[in-house]
Amino acid sequence: MNTLEVVLETAKHLNKKEDLNRDFELLLCHCLNKPRAWLYSHSKCFVTDLQEEKFLDLAAKRIRGIPVAYLIGRKEFWSLELEVDDNTLIPRPETELLIQWALELNLPKNSKVLDLGTGSGAIALALASERSDLQLLAVDFCEKALSVAQNNAIRLGLDRVSFLKSDWYASLPKTKYWDLIISNPPYVDTKSSIATDLHFEPAIALFSADSGLAALRRIIFDSKDYLKPSGCLILEHGFDQALAVEKVLEIAGYCEIQTKLDLAGLERATGGKRNAD
């Protein structure tokens, strides 16, 4: 048997690329079922041969580019620990901007909120954790992703969120019912090169045609049939797409259009209010 310190050093020697030390620590904690802080104070403790074998296998997969979230099967988002797999996009900190913005709207009690392309359920479940009164529907075209989202809702005790398989609005009745439509749709240009990690995430959740704007345009233009007059639409997009999204919202008849910055200072989300009929 080897100590934690030796096992971590073994993984580091296997890696000839970027600095993955933090990722290795997370993977080792996963194998030991211990918090990361415990690792630092117990570096001389021994691990079993089975634990070492499992860890080195995960470390090798991480070196090949598989994201940590997929290897351990979970990712934290808005203080919620969400289960994820390769059918769902990995929730990212910049998407928390959408949650913050939605909460700042101070929607009336029992407002109806539609989360388009829910994936792991991150947006809908985060909102449900903050506003138990909201009537939330989360939709996704991928049945396997919906299954992950539903399991997250049950495990987190947020099972009042409803789920529906739908290609955006396709399975919804054309009634102006929703107070807020919110989405983190695919917005990466199909012609762009992407980081290695992203190759392991579902392409359907990442890529969109028309310079990455196809899904955003569809959501915006079709929203008029589903959003209440004076209802709000909030969308995540690429750091260089804000002006294009603002223009589409303007053409679609939205007012009070604004773009907000993420923690890195990048233009990450744009939204507006539907003009009253």
Q: What would your notes on this structure say?
A:
The chain has 277 residues and is α/β, with parallel strands linked by helices. It has two domains: 4-64; 78-274, Rossmann fold, CATH 3.40.50. The strands form three sheets. Strands 5-4-3-6-9-11-10 form a seven-stranded mixed sheet, with helices on both faces. Strands 1-2 form a two-stranded antiparallel ribbon. The chain is built from twelve helices and eleven strands. Helix 2 runs antiparallel to helix 4. The relative contact order is 0.11.
Which key terms come to mind for this protein?
elongated, two-stranded antiparallel sheet, alpha/beta, single chain, seven-stranded mixed sheet, 2 domains, 277 residues, Rossmann fold
Number of helices: 12
Q: What's the SSE pattern?
A: HHHHHEEHEHEHEEEHEHHEHEE
Q: Could you tell me how far the N terminus lies from the C terminus, measured between alpha carbons in angstroms?
A: 72 Å
**Number of discrete domains:** 2
What structural category do the secondary elements indicate? alpha/beta
Low-confidence stretches: none
The gross shape turns out to be elongated
- According to DSSP, the number of beta strands is 11
- Fraction of helical residues: 25-40%
What is the beta-strand fraction? 15-25%
CATH class of the largest domain: Alpha Beta
Q: Taking Cα atoms only, what radius of gyration do you get, to the nearest Å?
A: 21 Å
